[in-house]
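Worked Example 4.2. Consider the chain below.
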Amino acid sequence: MWCKRGRQGFTLIELLVVIAIIAVLVGLLLPAVQKVREAANRMVCSNNLSQIGKAIHNYDQQLGRLPPGYLGPIPNESSLNSSTNVQNVGMLAFILPFIELDNVYKNLQVEWNVDKIGPPWWTIGANWTQAHTRAKVFVCPSDNPYENIIGTGIAAHYWHDASGPRIQALAFPNPTGQNLGRSNYAAICGSTGRGTNPFWAIYEGMLINRGVKTIGQVTAQDGTSNTLMVGEYLASNDPSFREPMARHYAGTWIGIGAGGAVAGLPPDREPPWYAFGSRHTATVQFCFGDGSVRGMRRGATATLFSQDWYVLQELAGMRDGGLRDTTQLVD
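Applying the procedure from the previous section yields the following structure tokens:
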């Protein structure tokens, strides 16, 4: 007896319909997954900044002063190129013992005294070896700071004189230094660090070149809750190059030092190397002097002398006495 068999499988049209439905569902779910992932990354980044902030406070408690932003040129109003015999070691290296990286710190050969000079960190073999250490606490999970295509930053200097703000940096071209440990965070030296210009001197920050300030001084002046201490920093793009959206540079944790707020917070994914920035959507996170971590909106702050720009400079400075409303800028 013969039995009629039932239809097996799907027709081509049915398969196409199923595939189309799956594609629509994936399209709907992917943004939600990415949003959740970014929220998690932002929390990790915030925790990194919090740990760095606590380490700075512990440093102040134990040594009676804040770590310097970096060990840069002496005198301060001189360029990196004319000051080859200085350490160029940044703030993050000073706080290594307070973030469970004691072994790295102990193996560094650096003249830590802010009043003394010493050879650049990269000229000493022990420092070069330790500088390859990759510390998770220095890297935001939303970024990959090892994808830079031009070079790796090893030192930077912010200052001001009669001509206005001055900014310089040194970098090793690829492939030299490509494996050096990176950082997505830098200290805040104010608007443009320390110098002799009376206007820019108003916005001098907590962590400047060879600074010896204290938490107590910040508290007594603008207050720790009103002063930026550490922020997200990509050291990314050189606007003079032809690729406007490329990741040209990244900074090393040992030499990244302190940056200034003078350039604002540009809205670009690849902000100029001299401006603070992040991979987070529309915001850059900062650790304030009181240890709290808050986001600041990008965009309008990059317009020189705009209202938001002035708010950012007042937050970056520790003794400007500014009283502008921050609610439109700080999350």
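Helices lie at 12-63, 91-94, 102-107, 125-130, 198-201, 215-220, 307-316. The first helix runs from residue 12 to 63. Compare this with Example 4.1 before moving on.
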